[in-house]
Design a protein that fits this description.
By secondary structure, the chain is α/β, with parallel strands linked by helices. It is built from seven helices and eleven strands. The protein has helices at about 5-10, 65-75, 140-150, 195-205, 210-215, 220-235, 265-280; strands at about 50-55, 80-85, 105-110, 130-135, 160, 160-170, 175, 185, 190-195, 240, 290. It is a single-pass type II membrane protein.
Length: about 325
């Protein structure tokens, strides 16, 4: 059975290619449904695979990555968890990982580069991928809500951290901003759900030059994935809830995860925006002012009537 993304995206966009001027042409690619959820017609995938990108060693049982793993595993929609171990230190012993009701697969990357998080791993058995940075802070309720939204928009990136692009007239180049504004054009893959088919496109159809840039900088892989998905769909991503802070602030400043605090990090992302736009031949990112919240969110009714009641407390 063809998947929803096949019926929606392939029919509407892949049949005519990404763009007349785009270097990517994906019109002949098949989209297979790997989700074993069954059903007929347009029934959406019922489970996701959480993929956690880990770059720092396990030194404490209170580390954010372990809390995140437990929160994802408790989701009723979680089929399995994959930990991509891109840390320079050896793999932790099996007993260091928390016990969960779903399988936890740890994959040690050979090259340990940023682009490896978007490889089309055979271990990903579901159509839906919940992509997570190791220092992301999400509750099980937030995971559940994001996935139910994605089920209605399986061709898009759906998640929490939103960013935007703009044209800087003074510099005559594209700019990147993390400021809280009334619109956005990217949802970062540190806390987002998308179709695993985009792993295949990222790996097979983006040029080595862009992926090498990402790997050398250890930066911008999330921006590049947003460029790719918007180029395919001609649609913006979808932000869920009002949540803006999604990173654990207590990560050690000596870790690779502290790259967000590096003053060069933001400048690199500005440069990435323009390099990516140059290769695509246009700016594929699209602004959106839509944010999806749970029904009854912040409404003055009994908390007992609300399905995602915990989100209001976060």
């Amino acid at each position: 059975m063809d998947s929803i993304i096949c019926q929606d995206v392939e029919k509407q966009n892949l049949a005519r290619g990404l763009n007349h001027s785009s270097p990517i042409q994906v019109k002949t690619l098949p989209l297979q449904n790997s989700d074993d959820s069954g059903g007929e017609g347009l029934k959406p995938p019922s489970k996701f695979t959480a993929v956690i990108h880990a770059v720092t060693p396990l030194v404490s049982q209170s580390q954010p990555v372990l809390k995140l793993l437990v929160a994802a595993a408790k989701s009723q929609y979680c089929a399995q968890i994959i930990v991509l171990w891109n840390c320079d230190k050896p793999l932790p012993a099996k007993h260091r990982w928390p016990a969960t009701a779903v399988p936890v697969i740890v994959i040690e990357g050979e090259s340990k580069v940023m682009s490896s998080r978007f490889l089309p791993y055979d271990n990903i058995i579901t159509d839906a991928v919940l992509s997570l940075d190791e220092d992301t802070v999400l509750s099980t309720t937030e995971v559940d809500f994001a996935f139910t939204v994605w089920q209605s928009f399986p061709e898009r990136i759906v998640g929490y951290p939103a960013r935007s692009h703009f044209w800087d007239n003074s510099k005559e180049r594209w700019g990147y901003t993390s400021k809280w504004t009334n619109d956005y054009s990217m949802v970062l893959t540190g806390a987002a759900i998308y179709h695993k088919y985009y792993h295949y496109l990222y790996t097979q159809y983006l040029p080595a030059s862009l992926k090498n840039m990402v790997d050398q900088l250890a930066n911008c892989e999330d921006i590049l994935m947003n460029f790719l998905v918007s180029a395919v769909t001609k649609l913006p991503p979808i932000k869920v809830t009002q949540k803006k802070q999604y990173k654990e602030t207590m990560m050690g400043q000596t870790s690779r995860a502290s790259r967000w605090a590096d003053p060069d990090h933001f400048a690199q992302r500005q440069s990435c925006m323009n390099t990516f736009a140059s290769w695509f031949g246009y700016m594929p990112l699209i602004h959106s002012q839509m944010r999806l919240d749970p029904v009854l969110f912040k409404d003055q009714v009994s908390i007992l009537r609300k399905k995602y009641r915990d989100i209001e407390r976060l």
